[in-house]
């Protein structure tokens, strides 16, 4: 029986060429699977047909935009997930979703091998292969760019030799990955970390230095989930789409950073994530209002670890699963409204209100109506500082 390879298919040169190349190299039939995670660009039906034209025996396109928003972006939002306190996990979030659909296709079509277009230098090879190993450890994995020293020059020559119906025109100097949650740009002149990014590399965001009127937006959350914008009910997908547009128009969400890749090297990345940054900013502020102090302090460490696990390709790991349960419990009272002003590349919180608020005006005010019993404070301060005083006296005694 002929083996079948399930290929993560984007429709570009490299994965189009991979179809006949994998067939030649392995003798297997190729199943192409393209997943729409809100990356935009070509019509998915055209991508499906291109896979068939390049020799795939089956070709599937999956509209996973709503699923991506609800099952992947939303957990990242509730975890305030920012790798290295800045990166909102753009590519890292989409990979486990793609893995899920690759594994489903392998089961549906009797695939025994899964293939992806990642190199041996990046994070995505880990995200794909660790995810596949968690969901279907019996599947083998082939990565042509890594396992067969596949290069773009070889891909172009192979496409011409096979007369494949694809464009082999000059390539953009940048490597770009984008989806609903944001956009990542690397390589080209950006590899010199002294070079500043130029305006041409951006697509999701307008130049924040251009003068324009501010945009005020009110985001309503229920249990950590955005459910309305300016009083209009929205799904998670609709919330992200609208804030990508509105925050992007104000230049919100541009990031230029050197990050620590999982494989141990540092990489310069430029990101655009207007909707993600606006939503995380609002969600963090609502947590400040509604989550008790010690729980909030502990959750910050959980959020950081959650982001590291997802960045490192461990979406399906036991620890990630356990942290999900903790985060879910913390969101019970994260409900209310946050008002943001989007302007000049920033999303600034200007108002908060919540029926679950822990902010008590009568305790916080310094004016008339103050209900705080200040007579209790002196003893509290003395007891709170007692361990430090005892330690200081001990150190003085021992010299």
From TrEMBL:
The keyword Ligase applies. Its main location: cytoplasm. Pathway: Amino-acid biosynthesis; L-arginine biosynthesis; L-arginine from L-ornithine and carbamoyl phosphate: step 2/3. It is found in: Cytoplasm. It catalyses: L-citrulline + L-aspartate + ATP = 2-(N(omega)-L-arginino)succinate + AMP + diphosphate + H(+). Homotetramer. Belongs to the argininosuccinate synthase family. Type 1 subfamily. This is Argininosuccinate synthase. It comes from Luedemannella helvata. The lineage of its organism: Bacteria, Bacillati, Actinomycetota, Actinomycetes, Micromonosporales.
């Amino acid at each position: 029986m002929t083996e079948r390879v399930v290929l993560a298919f984007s429709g570009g040169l490299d994965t189009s060429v991979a179809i006949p190349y994998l067939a030649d190299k392995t003798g297997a039939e190729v199943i192409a699977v393209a997943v729409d995670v809100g990356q935009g660009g070509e019509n998915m039906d055209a991508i499906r047909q291109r896979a068939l034209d390049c020799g795939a025996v089956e070709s599937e396109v999956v509209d996973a935009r709503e699923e991506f928003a609800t099952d992947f972006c939303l957990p990242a939002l509730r975890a305030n997930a920012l790798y290295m306190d800045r990166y909102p996990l753009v590519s890292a979030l989409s990979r486990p979703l793609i893995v899920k659909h690759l594994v489903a296709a392998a089961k549906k079509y009797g695939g025994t091998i899964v293939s992806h277009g990642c190199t041996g230098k990046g994070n995505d090879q880990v995200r794909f292969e660790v995810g596949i190993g968690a969901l279907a450890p019996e599947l083998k994995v082939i990565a042509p760019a890594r396992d067969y020293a596949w290069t773009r020059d070889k891909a172009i020559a192979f496409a011409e030799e096979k007369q494949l119906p694809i464009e082999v025109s000059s390539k953009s100097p940048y490597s770009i990955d984008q989806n609903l949650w944001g956009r990542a740009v690397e390589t080209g002149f950006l590899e010199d970390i002294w070079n500043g990014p130029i305006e041409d590399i951006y697509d999701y965001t307008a130049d924040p230095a251009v003068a324009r009127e501010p945009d005020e937006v009110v985001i309503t959350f229920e249990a950590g989930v955005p459910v309305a914008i300016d009083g209009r009910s929205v799904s998670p997908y609709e919330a992200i789409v609208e804030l990508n547009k509105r925050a992007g128009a104000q230049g919100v969400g541009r990031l230029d950073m050197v990050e620590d890749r999982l494989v141990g090297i540092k990489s310069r990345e430029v990101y655009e994530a207007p909707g993600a940054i606006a939503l995380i900013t609002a969600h963090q502020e609502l947590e400040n209002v509604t989550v008790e102090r010690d729980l909030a302090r502990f959750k910050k460490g959980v959020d950081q670890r959650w982001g590291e696990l997802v960045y490192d390709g461990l979406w399906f790991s036991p620890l990630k699963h356990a942290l999900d349960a903790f985060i879910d419990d913390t969101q019970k009272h994260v409900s209310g409204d946050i008002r943001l002003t989007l302007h000049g590349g920033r999303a600034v919180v200007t108002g908060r209100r919540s029926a679950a608020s822990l902010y008590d005006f009568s305790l916080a005010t310094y004016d008339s109506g103050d209900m705080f019993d200040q007579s209790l404070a002196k003893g509290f301060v003395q007891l709170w500082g007692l361990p430090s005083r005892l330690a200081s006296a001990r150190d003085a005694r021992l010299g």
